Amino acid sequence: MTFTFTQPSTLGPFKPTLILHGGAGSLSRANLPPDLYARYRTSLIRYLTVTRDLLNSGTSALDAACHAVALLEDDPLFNCGRGSVFTESGTIEMEASVMVSSVDPAGPPAGGIKRAAAVSLIKNTRHPILLAKEVLLEADKDGGLGGTSTMHCQLSGRELEEWGWRERALEKKPDRWFWTKKRWEEHRRGLHHDDTYSFNNLVASLDAYSESPFEDDDDSEVDEIPSQGTVGAVCMDSWGNLAVATSTGGLTNKKAGRIGDTPTIGAGFWAEAWEEESVNVPQLRQRESSRRTSGLGKLPVLDQILSQANESLGSCLNPSQPEHPYQPLNGAPPAYSPSASASYQPYPSPLVRHPSSSSTQPIRKRRRAVAMSGTGNGDSFLRLNAVRTVAALCRLSGPPSVSLADAVRTVTGPNGELQRSAGDRWGRTGEGQGGIIGIEVIDEEQEEEGPQPWVADGFKKQTTEGKMPSSKKKKRGHVVSDFNCGGLFRAYYELDESGVEMPKVMVFHEEY
């Protein structure tokens, strides 16, 4: 596998960073013994450091994220590419997606016209993530003016694959190349087939001239290795561009033709940038002190947002006043009314800033960008539009705005929205399980002096900035991750006590 990257002659003002994920699910030390964990750790560290080297040399966030995921697609430890799980019909159908954003108002250098692209029902393309990337970049060639077909964001099926092989020189592989014994055994056990439905039976069904099986497919721990869901990479390059790349084989024994969250924009991945008002520090601290005194700071993030909205809308949105139930103005919503009603009254947006509210007077604008990838039970992510919901909590709250770490925790942390969506099925079916990784970057000229928070695993850690050779320190993004299940494979860089970045792999909330 050979990649060629176009690199700029100079680097930008941001410190490149990234975070990778392998998958989330019912992981425990019982089904992840030390030797198996070591294999995962070795792979993740290698892909993390190789990709960081690319970013440090000037490679774009999009190229770096796709490169990292392509490496994961070639590793049978992970449920994507060559390690993909089988459908109920005994076939393999892969999915992948990419999305970009930028803290730079001019936007990302590539892919910014379409912003997002996803591919599904992929069967014979070695790297589905590179196919998704080509779909994304298709609109850039003519500035988005090349016609309807160049602006499609979601494509699937054989004709798409043939376009990738023919027009973009992507690598084609036979069905057999994607088969691994451990995934076949997961498939067989899930269908409760007897031993006659074995991997050897599958291999024997091919002719003698087919490509040989994957030689490094170690089946010694077939019973212990759980299917590890979607893989993903979120990268930030030196110019403040963000990119998310996500790839998966889907759910074991899914229905053939099923479309999951990975190729669904907003459900399994998202990237977004916006401009927001920044509150000055004394006013912000006064507001936070008042919130803590009133008990608001102890409420969940969603309830905090509703309480903030109450400042504009009155008690009708206050969750602490249940004695005032919601009453529709016209009996039925306008969409269900037989005719328009003159009694319908528009209401002000809860996000409108009122001049009389001195505690929220902005003193400047700032640019903010986020990018995220999710993994876990895709059907649950779909029902919540989970990853876009996280971004919406960040963008549509405040001031002060909700941090990405808090928003991720609200949706996919323990007892978060994702878990609660499973209802009484939680812990019985795998529904609602999952995790999200991401990067948040804020570009604000007058940043407060002092230590900056380095965010990882849903918790903030006070550290000092890394030592930079220049007198002007590089601006930093913050990596985020959280999950509600047994574990989430993830790899990122963390500052040690001396301010030096070190690669780190985590599976559980605590160290392995």
From TrEMBL:
Annotated stretches, region: Disordered: 313-377, 446-476
GO terms for MF: hydrolase activity
Active site, per annotation: T230 (nucleophile)
Residue spans of biased composition, Low complexity class: 332-346
Signal sequence annotation: none
InterPro entries from the UniProt entry: Ntn_hydrolases_N (IPR029055), Peptidase_T2 (IPR000246)
Residues of the site described as Cleavage: G229, T230
GO cellular component assignments: cytoplasm
Domain of life from the UniProt record: Eukaryota
Name of the protein in question: Asparaginase
Protein species of origin: Cladophialophora bantiana (strain ATCC 10958 / CBS 173.52 / CDC B-1940 / NIH 8579) (Xylohypha bantiana)
Lineage, top ranks: Eukaryota, Fungi, Dikarya, Ascomycota, Pezizomycotina
